[in-house]
Design a protein that fits this description.
224 residues; alpha/beta; sialyltransferase cstii, chain A; 8-stranded parallel beta sheet; 9 helices; 8 strands; 43% helix
């Protein structure tokens, strides 16, 4: 938290985010899940893999997945879940703020994928709608100081937050697929310039992890 909060303050200032809204969303999620996340986190920590494949929602993800072989621990950043399933990959962990095809995430959670569900000021309606639908292993996260029942691992976007979670749990090497920090995927209603600025922060946070000793490299080395 000592490392993360200064970054969080800068992010809120740049994007004019409401810290009060973040707190309200975090408290909402905490009220729904109670202490449910503790058992899931306790079960995940022992033996967490040193290497993971982390998949983002870039338009190139399906093409990248078609050319690699990987049998280790697979992490999806939100909407990447759908592409991974369609590409025949088993998903072990999902970091989501409920911005993708949530039904696919709920299904994978029911099959054992650990979901880290993130509450922030803009997704309170989605938290109300979906949080109770996740019946498998589940951890609630937030970007503000966490209320009881939630955890703050650091991270801003689903992708870099997933990297922060993996690093905190013990991963020392993160292979990236489907990440393009310069060219965000087009999406209806999305301000592309704002998204580029968000991805710049994601890249900055990844660099902080590198400086802390986490090896973060493209998954291209896994090519067939």
């Amino acid at each position: 938290m000592e490392e993360w909060l200064p970054l969080y303050e800068a992010i809120c200032k740049e994007f004019a985010f409401s810290k009060k809204a973040d707190v309200a969303s975090a408290k909402l999620l905490a009220s729904i899940i109670g202490d449910r996340g503790k058992n899931s986190l306790d079960a995940l920590r022992p033996g967490f893999p040193k290497q993971v494949l982390l998949c983002g929602g870039g338009e190139n993800l399906a093409d990248e997945l078609s050319s690699i072989v990987y049998e280790g621990f697979v992490v999806a950043a939100d909407g990447a879940t759908t592409t991974l399933v369609e590409s025949g990959f088993e998903v072990d962990m999902i970091s989501t703020d409920l911005d993708g095809i949530v039904e696919d995430q709920i299904e994978q959670n029911g099959e054992g994928a650990v979901v880290f569900l993130h509450a922030h000021g803009d997704n309170q309606a989605a938290v109300r709608r979906y949080a109770e639908s996740f019946t498998g292993p589940f951890v609630g996260t937030c970007q503000c100081p966490p209320p009881p029942g939630l955890v703050n691992f650091g991270g801003f976007t689903d992708g870099d937050r997933a990297a922060c979670i993996c690093a905190e749990l013990g991963a020392t090497e993160i292979l990236l697929a489907g990440f393009d920090f310069l060219n965000p995927s087009p999406k209806a209603g999305r301000d592309m310039e704002v998204k580029r600025r968000k991805l710049a922060w994601a890249e900055r946070i990844m660099e902080v992890l590198r400086q802390q000793g986490v090896k973060i490299t493209p998954a291209s080395e896994l090519k067939r």
